[in-house]
Amino acid sequence: MSIVPAPTSTRGEIILQPAYFTSSIYVKALRDDITNLILKYYEKYSETQPAQPFSLFKELWEAQGWKLLHFKVFDDRARKAFLDVTLRLFLERTVKTEAPFSRAAALFGMYIFFSTQPRNAAPPLYSVSHIPIATDHFLSLKALPEGLITPEFEALQPRIECILSRLMKEKVFLMVPESRLGALNPRSLPREVYMDSCVRTAGEDSGGRKKGRPTKRDKAQKAKTAVESLDRWLERTSCVGPAEALEDYQRKKGGFLSRVYGTEEDTEGDRAVIAKANEIIVGRLREAQALVGSGSGSGDAGVLRVERAAASLGDGRGGVLGLVEGAGVEESDEMVD
Predict the structure, then answer these.
(1) Which of 64, 174, 211, 321 has the fewest CB atoms within 10 Å, i.e. is most exposed?
(2) Distance of alpha carbon 297 from alpha carbon 288, whole angstroms
(3) What is the mean predicted confidence (pLDDT) over 219-231?
(4) Alpha helices, H only, the chain
(5) Helix axis angle, 24-48 to 53-63, nearest 10°
(6) Is the predicted pLDDT of residue 62 greater than 70, yes or no?
(7) Listed range (55-69, 229-243, 296-310, 322-336) with the worst mean pLDDT
(8) 126-129: long-range pairs with CB below 8 Å, 24+
(9) H or E element: which one contains 132?
(10) At what angle are helices 76-91 and 100-115 packed, to 10 degrees?
(11) First to last CA, the chain
């Protein structure tokens, strides 16, 4: 049945595109459903050991709603992709690497789905007449009954032989080159992989910078990440206000200076270390002033104040450690217009 280009829907009707059925959205969901069908059938089969295993499978097929699957899509273009992909996903569970029972159950499902296509519907629905299969896959499928010789699965063997005989008699299988050549279209399923918007790509995870200007989404994601990291940091650390931090600093500094200058002895050379640190700070400030250039007003006054504070170290005020308490400030500096 050929597909003729023609409008097949009324205005405003939403139609699934063929790419939907080859995408990971449909392929992954159907694979999971097929796996669940096989597992449920194995449970029922193990409990009852039926004399008519195909009838048991049909009951489970109808109970799980698989008989309504054909009415999922009616547009010809989308229906062709829907039928081809669905039959292919059933057929892929019949490869020789699968367990014999899983292969038999998947063949039951493929046969029922293929045989129950509405062929005489009004209006007519698109249907397929052939199932593409690789030659090596076909040979392993023909040998499937030989793997069902155990007493547990012996009842499946004649049903599998009957189904394979009928499919080959009706020339349903369309031979394509062996599997390693990738002759099926598409070559592999899913062809389109859906990525959720909240999933990071490999480039973003590795920290690599993307080319071009950042998009609004990239900027929003970066801002969101920054806020979240800040929230986590705030939760891990204890926040104190400026007043509490200053008080804590002055208390610790006072204890340190009282220990160094509160006694006549300087047993460990702490005073010499503090004096050396003051000299280094003043020297670096002078170097910075020379690079920037003098005459900057407030900058020169700041350097002069640090020099005066360092010079007052011998008075026990701590040198540059006393800047917070007003070390190095002259009376002229404290005058306010």
Answers:
(1) 211
(2) 15
(3) 84
(4) 18-22, 24-48, 53-63, 76-91, 100-115, 135-142, 156-169, 202-205, 216-236, 242-261, 270-292, 298-311, 331-334
(5) 130
(6) yes
(7) 322-336
(8) 126/1, 126/3, 126/76, 126/79, 126/80, 126/83, 127/1, 127/83, 128/80, 128/83, 128/84, 128/87, 129/1, 129/172
(9) strand 131-134
(10) 160
(11) 99
Evaluate whether 77 touches 18 at the Cβ level (below 8 Å). yes
71-101: b (≥16 Cβ within 10 Å) or e: eebbbbbbbbbbbbbbbbbbbbbbbeebebb
- At residue 175, φ and ψ (nearest 5 deg) are -75, 135
At residue 134 the predicted structure's pLDDT band, cuts being 50, 70 and 90, is very high
109, 147, 146, 162: which is closest to 131 by C-alpha? 109
Which pair of tokens denotes residue 334? 């404290």
CA-based max dimension of the chain: 113
- Say if residue 86's pLDDT is above 80: yes
Token pair 């009707």 is found at 13
User: What's the pLDDT score for residue 104?
Assistant: 96
Please, which residues bridge with residue 174 across strands? 132
Q: What is the pLDDT of residue 310?
A: 83
Please give the Cα distance from 297 to 261 (Å, whole number). 35
Find the Cα–Cα–Cα–Cα dihedral 179, 183, 186, 190, rounded to 10°: 10
101, HSE (Cβ side, Cα atoms, 13 Å): 19
Dihedral pair phi/psi, residue 201, rounded to 5°:
-80, 170
